[in-house]
Q: What sequence folds into this?
């Protein structure tokens, strides 16, 4: 029965007004309801205390608020907290709170699973079940924000779309949810604090540029060699590195933003000096920042973390080419919490 009800979070303020007018309710209530939904934000109509009981009943009969429930929560020795969110249909996705001394970052999911099948990624093994809707994306941020306050007395400073799924293949919902996160009608966070991580889909990167989005773009490159990238990132077979570069040039020219490249160093796969040279060459077309990521082992044992010596050589080479390189040590290893490899384990 509840399937008949519409998710109120997909309505604009104007549409809520229209609904109220149809039912003979006062228009100013729409703004109040909208604030409860996005600014407070509540997960049930009963929490809307300045709305009359009758109107709340009417809302309940017509709508649901599709958000997320915290289903499970694990805290790592380094204070990273992994959350499993349960969605209205029972599907599970994961998020992470990553606190540092003066920052708190929320890593959130955009899809249940992913159909791009990167060989090294646990989410890729799940296939795609469905896209998350606006409320499901937004409320992951809200829950992680609450947790940062409660546990560490920290305000949420950053959001990364690096959990399960490919955000550019659920673009409209991701965009709307992030618009509300940065809107004064919502959480008022600066869009510059939001990073969208993508496997690199050229046509969607051009769309991002055309839409003049204000958030940062991180591209999971992991290899600058088509033959190699084709092997462990099948998406590359349809979208070559040249196409990707052209789209990134376009993005950079249109937005003025530099590109962040994520590069996962995997033993014997993409961590040789030749790989580093190809990567440095690929970085020449636009200003870049590089994040070297440590690999977190999954069940697929073909992929292992790069060993100390190759790891250091790779990083040193890039630095010698005057590239901006950050090494992102894996957080929350004891709880499998690193973004991107979240998944699967709960579904056994
Ligand atoms: N689909 C998007 C965002 C989700 S994946 C993307 O691919 O960018 C987020 C990041 O986690 C990506 O850089 C991905 O390559 C990385 N990742 C996947 N599996 C990982 C693992 N086992 N260890 C560390 N990072 C991993
Ligand atoms: Fe999907 Fe990103 Fe995992 Fe690739 S790395 S399978 S794009 S979630």
A:
């Amino acid at each position: 029965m509840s399937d008949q009800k519409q998710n109120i979070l997909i309505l604009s303020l104007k549409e809520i007004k229209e609904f109220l007018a149809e039912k003979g309710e006062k228009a100013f209530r729409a703004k109040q309801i909208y604030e409860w939904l996005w600014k407070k934000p509540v997960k049930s109509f009963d929490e809307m205390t300045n709305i009359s009981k009758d109107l709340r009943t009417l809302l309940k009969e017509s709508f649901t608020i599709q958000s997320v429930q915290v289903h499970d929560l694990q805290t790592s020795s380094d204070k990273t907290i992994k959350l499993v969110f349960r969605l209205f249909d029972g599907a599970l996705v994961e998020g992470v709170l990553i606190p540092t001394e003066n920052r708190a970052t929320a890593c959130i999911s955009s899809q249940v699973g992913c159909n791009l099948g990167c060989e090294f990624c646990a989410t890729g093994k799940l296939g795609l079940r469905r896209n998350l809707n606006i409320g499901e994306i937004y409320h992951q941020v809200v829950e992680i924000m609450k947790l940062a306050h409660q546990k560490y007395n920290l305000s949420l400073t950053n959001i990364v779309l690096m959990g399960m799924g490919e955000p550019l293949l659920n673009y409209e919902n991701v965009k709307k949810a992030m618009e509300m996160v940065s809107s004064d009608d919502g959480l008022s966070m600066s869009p510059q604090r939001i990073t969208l991580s993508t496997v690199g889909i050229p046509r969607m990167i051009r769309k991002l540029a055309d839409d003049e989005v204000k958030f940062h773009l991180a591209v999971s490159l992991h290899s600058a060699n088509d033959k190699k990238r084709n092997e462990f990132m099948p998406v590359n077979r349809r979208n070559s590195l040249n196409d990707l570069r052209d789209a990134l040039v376009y993005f950079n020219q249109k937005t003025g933003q530099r590109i962040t490249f994520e590069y996962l160093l995997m033993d014997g796969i993409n961590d040789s000096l030749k790989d580093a040279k190809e990567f440095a060459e690929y970085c020449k077309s636009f200003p870049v920042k590089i994040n070297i990521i440590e690999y977190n082992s999954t069940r697929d044992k073909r992929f292992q973390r790069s060993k100390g010596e190759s790891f250091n050589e790779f990083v040193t080479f890039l630095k010698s080419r005057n590239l901006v390189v950050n090494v992102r040590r894996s957080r929350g290893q004891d709880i499998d919490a690193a973004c991107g490899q979240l998944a699967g384990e709960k579904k056994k």
